[in-house]
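wait is this the right file?? whatever heres the structure
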């Protein structure tokens, strides 16, 4: 230890240690600490505030550690040049201290007990708030490189101990002499687990197991000891293992809690009796319902065990139920572990092996959350997190969110004023001197307003991480304010206000118990400070306002006028209870499929939130907004971002706009916040308006004095950045700065009334708040007055004639996995007559496999129906159907049962009576539909059979343009949209949308097919239809109605453009037919379709190289010739034909023959490809078709280029923005095509009529337009010759 001459900041204090023998033990210690200056302090602190010491609570009590423990409990922060091996649990989360940092004792640190006040100058080291309102802190969530490793070490130790406890619990059950320790509530909970256990469901269904209720421990013992095991005993063993895991988990968690409390309050070398006494004294400050060391007030020992609860969710609303439930898992801890100190000594020694001693609370929350996730959630149900929406928020994100509400943009007041409700200004001379006498109101020197914690709510608190972070910050604020930190009455009042104003709700009983442990631990620093100031002072807290309940219902206990009943009634009445801060991470799941209950209609407005299908987090949005204080209250939430633009939340967005000030949004790409969650994340801040806006955007009351800040939306596009780096970029963003990260995309939107919510499509989308590119801004400026591609409403009277298309969506064929059948199976099952009457071809692909639907189809006898998940066959212009190589939506010239793989059962409500008469209730068809209703629509008991509305399936529409409604996102393998045309009256389901042409539109469908597949429309789709940062899109009517439409004015240009589209259809149909001629059809299809999507044509790889075979050795010879730079080229010599074709052996290498960019050159080679006509081989070898495919792929690429250029001329997009648009979409553009067919750059080849009348020409023929069509026609003629020869070959082989 350094001596006194080395540092002027050494403090000597006295401490009372022993209470049992009333002996005062005084210990002097000298310490050296260094505190880093951090950016967030410069924002938080005013002139009279003190620089705190991050979260290292040991620095608050520097007088409390004896000299002989200084090498263990006190950490001197090293200089950057000094290596350190100190365990992380000792360390602050702030960056390493610089040599010039200043300790708290030199910065107006509170005077020590019995010492002199500090004479440091307040102004010399004070920090002032930054001028910029956008700058916030990042250092508060910086991380240490060793944090994850050492947290993992602790979790590993606890996990090993848990396994040992499981073994011991089993031994206790087998030892009948200890049977009296097992509470009666065990049997109730065990029987409940048997009923709810999902592990052996398949076993139960196959063997009809009906497990009986266990009535005694001896009965259970005899069952699980049965040999050999039976399916029933395996069920009980599985449940018993489940129970042991839960009991051992609670035991280890509470042991860990006690160890942390002992480490924090006591010296390491104090005897166990004194350490245990400190725990009891700490827990005695809590209400009896919060002291989990005491037996529950309502013991369950006399409760009946013969029955079990039918609904665990509905039973959690009663506090007695909670205590009884936990008591069924707590008995081992209470009766065996806690009375024996050796258990704690063992755990302590295991942690000491890693030099771990908890003198700070820095890592407690991380340890608890990791231990809970790894050894509770993940052990029993792999889908538990997904079903419950439980994904615990990373600590740095949680700190960032609290930073935003406390010190973020637009906040007034200091951190002390916001957290303690007192002024931090005071002089050192007037500091109250802490008293060491017995606490009483008369002994306090407090002369001002007592500190009061703000009222905080977490409606889905999990293990309490957000609330614990708030307690951390409150404690820091108290330490910064000498009037609070040095007065026992102020500390006592602060603790009381925390118990009163800290509110939380959690539905899971085990998570709720961990939450209580976590919050209790985080109250230790304030308790320790109070004990040091008034060792004999009395402190008793009111009951914590934490509830194990369902936020969506807030069930009331049966007994009225109890504490819990009254406070839950307050929570149910937002007019009576308002909160200052609500910061949380709502659960993420769909209500109709997730593990959540039906919300209480008294708590939520179904007119805004709907009755089904709403994401669960939307209900929590409502719950929070209704309960936050107007204008001064703050809400900060993290959720997925889909609600910003998708249709399901349109009414919610309108409601939020009327009720709230939207402050700021921070978007995170998928996997950034949670490594295993693909959905992107959005952190956003709201303030409740004093008076809501009316539907016309005007305020409904008197003007508010609150000055609404602009709305800021930030999106950091650096995908390589870590989560910490992303948060750092968000925290330090300043739009007024001339230098900031170019990867930061942002948009600042003026507040109301300068900005109104767009409502032209009734979707009230918030996407207008998101950052847009320069290309998007440019396109919006030049198309602002254009009509829409389609109407936003399905109501015909609202349609506008200038909008050319009508948007449709296929019917919801619920249950889709029963009303869509495999055609061949249906014909064999129902018969030809029934299928011809009731089935029609449908464009469909199987989007799932497994589940109850698969079980249904196995029962029906068609295991292939859901055998595997299929990709969408939709491709641009022409769909690619593996069973149909003709390039159309159905197979033509064949029997009805062979036209399509899938068929739609055309039975709607009105058809049920007809079906009852013919084929009748005894038919296989009726029986099938009846079983489908029972198995897949079990809730629709009013229906006899399954049916759906078929009026929107499109069967009566001769020509329609189809596209999947869920596109996913543009990628390298799928870089473009995939609109295709159907002219065969095929049905569609709600998997797809389709367009039809208005009767008033004088343009054919082919014109719009080409336009919809153009690059220009692709950009509009990406801008208006995507709903997350990943770029996934949904082509809803409201989104498609935002796409502008530029009507063409040049007749010749229209005809040329239609000709391009029709030739594109022909080219792709021939490509698909060629794929069907190859012997490796699946591999060829994958390679060719990928090239087709990307607009490239050069085929390379092993499948395109000639392979030696015995059948061809007599006809061909293969020669390897070495070219320059060591590249080997294979020369194929076809004997008797005189053809020599060269192919590169290097994947990706382009041979000289393929480097010809002239389509005609490729065509001439195709005509001489006599090898394709060999009648001995109907299925052509892959490598023989290479010139065929490359010619058509090149033609397709050139035609797509022509279609894109025409669309550019139609919308008036110049070359500069053409390039920028294609770069933004990350499209591959081939210079060889652009060189031959230059970009459009202004109107050319205008028709004579337009020239004469001086009108602006939209949509013109490029100067190379006719030449391109001529060359494509030559290529088509060449490949048609090949296809004709192959068709003749196939016919000859069949004869």
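ok assuming it is, sequence goes like this
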């Amino acid at each position: 230890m350094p001596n006194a001459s080395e540092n002027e900041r050494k403090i000597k204090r006295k401490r009372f240690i022993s209470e049992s023998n009333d002996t005062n033990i005084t210990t002097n210690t000298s310490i050296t600490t260094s505190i880093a200056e951090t950016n967030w302090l410069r924002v938080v602190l005013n002139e009279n505030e003190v620089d705190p010491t991050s979260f290292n609570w040991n620095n608050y009590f520097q007088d409390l550690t004896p000299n002989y423990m200084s090498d263990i409990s006190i950490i001197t922060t090293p200089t950057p040049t000094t290596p350190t091996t100190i365990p992380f649990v000792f360390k602050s989360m702030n960056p390493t201290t610089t040599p010039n940092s200043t300790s708290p004792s030199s910065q107006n640190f509170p005077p020590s007990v019995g010492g002199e006040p500090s004479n440091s100058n307040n102004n010399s080291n004070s920090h002032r708030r930054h001028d910029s309102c956008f700058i916030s802190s990042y250092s508060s969530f910086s991380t240490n490189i060793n944090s994850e490793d050492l947290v993992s070490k602790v979790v590993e130790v606890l996990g090993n101990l848990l396994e040992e406890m499981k073994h011991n619990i089993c031994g206790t059950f087998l030892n009948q002499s200890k049977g009296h320790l097992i509470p009666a509530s065990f049997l109730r909970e065990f029987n409940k687990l048997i009923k709810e256990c999902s592990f052996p469901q398949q076993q139960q269904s196959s063997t009809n197991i009906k497990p009986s209720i266990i009535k005694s421990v001896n009965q259970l013992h005899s069952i699980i000891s049965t040999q050999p095991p039976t399916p029933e005993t395996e069920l009980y063993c599985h449940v018993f293992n489940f129970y042991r895991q839960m009991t051992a988990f609670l035991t280890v968690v509470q042991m860990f809690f006690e160890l942390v409390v002992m480490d924090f309050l006591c010296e390491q070398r104090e005897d166990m009796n004194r350490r245990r006494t400190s725990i009891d004294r700490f827990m005695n400050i809590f209400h009896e319902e919060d002291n989990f060391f005491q037996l529950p007030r309502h013991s369950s020992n006399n409760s009946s065990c013969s029955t079990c609860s039918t609904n665990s969710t509905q039973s959690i609303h009663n506090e007695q139920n909670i205590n009884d439930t936990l008591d069924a898992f707590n008995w081992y801890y209470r009766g065996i572990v806690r009375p024996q100190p050796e258990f704690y000594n063992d755990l302590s020694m295991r942690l000491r092996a890693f030099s771990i001693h908890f003198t700070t609370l820095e890592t407690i929350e991380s340890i608890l959350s990791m231990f809970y996730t790894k050894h509770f959630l993940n052990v029993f149900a792999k889908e538990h997190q997904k079903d419950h929406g439980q994904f615990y928020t990373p600590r740095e994100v949680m700190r960032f969110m609290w930073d935003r509400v406390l010190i973020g943009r637009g906040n007034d007041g200091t951190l002390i004023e916001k957290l303690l409700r007192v002024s931090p200004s005071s002089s050192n001379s007037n500091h109250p001197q802490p008293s060491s006498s017995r606490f009483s109101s008369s002994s306090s020197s407090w002369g001002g307003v007592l500190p009061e914690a703000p009222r905080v709510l977490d409606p889905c608190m999990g293990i309490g991480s957000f609330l614990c972070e708030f307690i951390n910050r409150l404690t820091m604020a108290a330490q910064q304010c000498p009037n609070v930190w040095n007065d026992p009455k102020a500390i006592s009042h602060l603790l009381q206000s925390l118990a009163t104003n800290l509110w939380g709700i959690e539905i899971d009983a085990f998570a709720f118990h961990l939450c209580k442990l976590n919050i209790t631990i985080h109250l230790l620093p304030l308790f320790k400070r109070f004990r040091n100031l008034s060792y004999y002072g009395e402190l008793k807290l009111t009951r914590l306002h934490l509830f194990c309940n369902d936020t969506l219902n807030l069930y009331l206990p049966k007994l009225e006028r109890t504490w819990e009943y009254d406070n839950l009634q307050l929570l149910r009445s937002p007019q009576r209870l308002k909160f200052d801060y609500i910061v949380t991470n709502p659960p993420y799941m769909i209500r109709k499929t997730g593990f959540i209950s039906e919300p209480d209609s008294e708590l939520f407005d179904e007119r805004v939130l709907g009755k089904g299908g709403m994401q669960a987090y939307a209900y929590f949005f409502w719950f929070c907004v209704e309960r936050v204080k107007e204008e001064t209250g703050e809400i900060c939430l993290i959720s997925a971002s889909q609600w910003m633009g998708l249709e399901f939340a349109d009414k919610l967005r309108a409601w939020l706009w009327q009720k709230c000030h939207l402050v700021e949004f921070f978007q995170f790409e998928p996997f950034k916040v949670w490594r295993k969650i693909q959905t992107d994340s959005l952190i956003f801040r709201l303030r409740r308006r004093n008076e809501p806006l009316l539907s016309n955007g005007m305020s409904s009351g008197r003007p508010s004095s609150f000055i609404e800040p602009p709305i800021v939306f930030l999106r950091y596009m650096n995908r390589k950045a870590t989560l910490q780096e992303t948060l750092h970029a968000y925290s330090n963003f300043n739009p007024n700065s001339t230098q900031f990260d170019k990867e930061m995309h942002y948009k600042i939107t003026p507040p109301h009334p300068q900005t109104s919510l767009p409502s032209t499509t009734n979707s009230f989308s918030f996407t207008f708040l998101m950052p847009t590119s320069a290309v998007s801004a440019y396109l919006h400026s030049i198309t602002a007055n254009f009509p829409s591609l389609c109407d936003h409403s399905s109501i015909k009277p609202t349609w506008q004639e200038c909008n050319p298309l009508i948007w449709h969506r296929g019917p919801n064929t619920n249950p889709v996995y029963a009303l869509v059948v495999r055609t061949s199976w249906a014909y064999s099952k129902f018969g030809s007559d029934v299928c011809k009457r009731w089935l029609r071809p449908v464009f469909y692909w199987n989007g799932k496999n497994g589940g109850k639907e698969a079980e249904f189809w196995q029962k029906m006898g068609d295991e292939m129906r859901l055998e595997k998940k299929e990709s969408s066959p939709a491709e641009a212009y022409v769909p690619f159907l593996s069973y149909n190589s003709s390039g159309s939506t159905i197979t033509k010239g064949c029997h009805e049962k062979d036209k399509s793989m899938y068929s739609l059962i055309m039975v709607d409500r009105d058809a049920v009576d007809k079906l009852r008469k013919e084929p009748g209730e005894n038919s296989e068809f009726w029986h099938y539909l009846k079983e489908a209703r029972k198995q897949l629509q079990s809730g629709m008991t009013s229906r006899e059979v399954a049916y759906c509305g078929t009026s929107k399936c499109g069967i009566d529409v001769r020509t329609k343009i189809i596209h999947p409604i869920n596109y996913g996102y543009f990628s390298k393998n799928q870089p473009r949209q995939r609109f295709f045309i159907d002219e065969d009256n095929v049905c569609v389901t709600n998997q797809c949308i389709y367009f039809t042409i208005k009767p008033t539109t004088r343009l054919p469908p082919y014109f719009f097919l080409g336009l919809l597949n153009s690059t220009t429309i692709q950009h509009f789709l990406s801008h208006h239809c995507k709903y997350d940062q990943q770029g996934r899109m949904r082509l809803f009517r409201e989104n498609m109605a935002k796409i502008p439409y530029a009507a063409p004015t040049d007749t010749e240009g229209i005809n040329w453009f239609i000709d391009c589209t029709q030739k594109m259809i022909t080219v792709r149909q021939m490509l698909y037919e060629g794929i069907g001629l190859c012997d490796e059809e699946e591999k060829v299809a994958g390679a060719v379709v990928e090239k087709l999507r990307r607009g490239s044509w050069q085929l390379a790889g092993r499948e395109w190289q000639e392979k030696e075979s015995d059948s061809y050795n007599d006809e061909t010879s293969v020669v390897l010739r070495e070219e320059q730079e060591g590249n080997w080229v294979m020369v194929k010599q076809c004997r008797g034909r005189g053809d020599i074709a060269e192919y590169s052996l290097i994947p990706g290498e382009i041979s000289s023959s393929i480097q010809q960019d002239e389509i005609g050159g490729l065509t001439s080679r195709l005509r001489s490809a006599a090898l394709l006509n060999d009648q001995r081989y109907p299925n052509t070898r892959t490598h023989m078709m290479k010139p065929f495919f490359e010619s058509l792929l090149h033609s397709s690429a050139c035609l797509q280029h022509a279609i894109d250029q025409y669309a550019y001329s139609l919308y008036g997009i110049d070359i500069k923005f053409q390039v920028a648009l294609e770069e933004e979409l990350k499209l591959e553009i081939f210079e060889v095509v652009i060189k031959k067919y230059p970009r459009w750059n202004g109107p050319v080849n205008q028709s004579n009529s337009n020239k004469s009348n001086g009108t602006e020409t939209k949509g013109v023929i490029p100067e190379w337009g006719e030449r391109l069509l001529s060359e494509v026609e030559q290529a088509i003629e060449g490949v048609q010759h090949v296809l004709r020869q192959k068709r003749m070959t196939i016919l000859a082989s069949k004869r």
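The chain has 43 helices and 22 strands. so i think its the right one actually
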